[in-house]
UniProtKB/TrEMBL annotation:
Function: Catalyzes the transfer of the gamma-phosphate of ATP to D-galactose to form alpha-D-galactose-1-phosphate (Gal-1-P).
EC number: 2.7.1.6
Cited PROSITE patterns: GALACTOKINASE, GHMP_KINASES_ATP
Pfam family, one: GalKase_gal_bdg
Residue positions of the active site: D175
Organism: Lactobacillus equicursoris DSM 19284 = JCM 14600 = CIP 110162
Site entry (Transition state stabilizer), positions: R27
Gene Ontology CC entries for this record: cytosol
Gene that this sequence comes from: galK
Reaction catalysed by this enzyme: alpha-D-galactose + ATP = alpha-D-galactose 1-phosphate + ADP + H(+)
Domain GHMP kinase N-terminal, residue spans: 94-182
Protein name: Galactokinase
Domain GHMP kinase C-terminal: 287-367
Catalytic EC class: transferase
Length: 388
C-alpha cells in the first residue's frame, strides 16, 4: 500500500504535513468461534486488509479525527474526561474515544492534542474486525507518538474493555488479540482463559484462504451476540452447582454430557454444547495443522460451521449458502462462517489453481439464491498493528 495517498489526504484535511503513518490489520479466524468469552481456545490470524492512519501533532489540547470512509467526516474533541464521553451522532468516533480514555487511565494524561486521518480497505461490519482494527490502531498511535509503554497483550485487553464498557458489546478478546499480536504467515493458538499463546505456521500446501463476505451488514451490538454470551453464562452457572469450573472452556464433551441434567433447558444446552465442542475442535485442529493432516483440519472446520448453525444458531441463510455451496465445489478443503455471525463473512480453503473458478461458481449460486452479490478476497496473513 502506497502511504502517499494517506499523507496527501492528511495534508488536504489539516493543512500541514503528516509526521507518521500506521497500519492495523483485520482478522480471520481459522477455527474457535464464540469460544473466547467462554474461556476456550481460538486460532485466528491478522490479514492484509485493514485500517491506515496518518498522524500529526498539535500544540493545543484538541484531537481531530478525519475518516476517509465516512465521507471525510471530521470529529474534534478536547482531551479530558468529560469530552471523552460517547458521541451519539458519530458512532465511529467512539472506538477512538474509548481507547484514548483507557490508554490515558493506564498510563498518564496526554499533554497535547493531535490530528489523525484514517482510512481502511477492510469492509466495515463484514465480520473481519474493523472495530478491533481501529482500536489497536489508535492504541499504537498513542504509544508511539506519546512514548507510552503498554504491553501489546494489555493493549488488546484495553480494546476489549472499550467494546465491553464503552460500546456495550460483551465480546471476548480474540479480535483485538489477533489484530495486535498477528504474525506474518502464522495463526495464533490462544487460550483465552490464561492468555497463553503460540504461533503456528499456516502450512496449507497448495491451498489458499478465500474470504467470502455475505455483504449483509451485521451490527453485533444490536444482534443476538450479547444473548449468546448471557446464555453461556447461565449454562455455566447451572453446571457450577456440581462442577468447580469458571468457564465452559474448562470441560470436555464427556463431562458436559454427564452433567447436562443440571442445565435441563434445550436452548442453553445447545449453546453449551457448541462452546464445549468448538473448544475441543480448535485444540484438535491445531494438532492436525502441526501433523500436516489437512484433511482432518478441513473436517473440523466444516464441523465448526455445522455446530454454529444447529447448536449456536448464528449462521443464517447468507452464511449457510456460502458454506454449503463452497463444500460442493472442486478443490475445496473446507468452509465455515467466521466472527460473530448473523451476516458478515465466511472463509473457504481452496486449491490455489481452483480459486478463480470457485469464486465464480459460489458467487453465481449466492447471487441467485440471496438476490445480491457476495464479495471475495484472497487473504494474505500479515503482522499485527505497526508503524509504517
Ligand atoms: C466477535 C467478537 F468480537 C469476538 O470476541 C468473538 O466472540 C467472535 O465474535 C466470535 O468468535 O468477533
Amino acid at each position: 500500500m502506497n502511504t502517499q495517498f494517506l499523507k496527501d489526504n492528511f495534508e488536504k484535511t489539516f493543512n500541514e504535513p503528516a509526521f507518521d503513518t500506521f497500519f492495523s490489520p483485520g482478522r480471520i479466524n481459522i477455527i474457535g468461534e464464540h469460544t473466547d468469552y467462554n474461556g476456550g481456545h481460538v486460532f485466528p490470524c491478522a490479514i492484509s486488509l485493514g485500517t491506515y492512519a496518518a498522524y500529526g501533532s498539535r500544540s493545543d489540547k484538541q484531537i481531530s479525527v478525519c475518516s476517509g470512509n465516512m465521507n471525510d467526516d471530521v470529529v474534534t474533541f478536547a482531551i479530558g474526561d468529560t469530552s471523552l464521553e460517547k458521541d451519539p451522532d458519530h458512532k465511529w468516533i467512539n472506538y477512538f474515544k474509548g481507547m484514548i480514555a483507557y490508554v490515558q487511565e493506564e498510563t498518564k494524561p496526554l499533554d497535547h492534542g493531535f490530528n489523525l486521518y484514517v482510512w481502511g480497505n477492510l469492509p466495515y461490519g463484514a465480520g473481519l474486525s474493523s472495530s478491533a482494527s481501529i482500536e489497536m490502531l489508535i492504541g499504537k498511535v498513542l504509544t508511539e507518538e506519546f512514548n507510552l509503554s503498554v504491553d501489546p497483550v494489555r493493549m488488546a485487553q484495553l480494546g476489549q474493555k472499550t467494546e465491553n464498557e464503552f460500546i456495550g458489546l460483551s465480546s471476548g478478546i480474540m479480535d483485538q488479540f489477533a489484530v495486535n499480536m498477528g504474525k506474518k504467515d502464522h495463526a495464533i493458538f490462544l487460550d483465552c482463559a490464561s492468555l497463553k499463546y503460540k504461533y503456528l505456521p499456516l502450512n496449507l500446501g497448495d491451498y489458499e484462504i478465500i474470504i467470502m463476505s455475505t455483504n449483509k451488514k451485521h451490527t453485533l451490538a444490536d444482534s443476538a451476540y450479547n444473548d449468546r454470551v448471557r446464555e453461556c453464562q447461565e449454562a455455566t452457572k447451572k453446571l457450577q452447582q456440581k462442577l468447580k469450573i469458571e468457564h465452559l472452556g474448562d470441560i470436555n464433551e464427556e463431562t458436559l454430557d454427564e452433567y447436562s441434567y443440571l442445565i435441563n433447558d434445550e436452548t442453553l444446552l445447545k449453546r453449551a454444547r457448541h462452546a464445549v465442542s468448538e473448544n475441543q475442535r480448535t485444540i484438535k485442529a491445531t494438532e492436525a495443522m502441526m501433523d500436516k493432516d489437512l484433511e482432518k483440519l478441513g473436517r473440523l472446520i466444516n464441523a465448526s460451521h455445522v455446530s454454529l448453525h444447529f447448536d449456536y444458531e448464528v449462521t443464517g441463510k447468507e452464511l449457510d449458502t456460502l458454506a454449503e455451496t463452497a463444500w460442493r465445489q472442486d478443490g475445496v478443503l473446507c468452509a465455515r462462517m467466521i466472527g460473530g455471525g448473523f451476516g458478515g463473512s465466511a472463509i473457504a480453503i481452496v486449491k490455489e489453481d481452483k480459486a478463480k473458478e470457485f469464486e465464480e461458481k459460489v458467487g453465481a449460486v449466492y447471487e441467485e439464491k440471496i438476490g445480491y452479490a457476495a464479495s471475495f478476497y484472497e487473504a494474505k496473513i500479515v503482522d499485527g498493528t505497526h508503524k509504517l
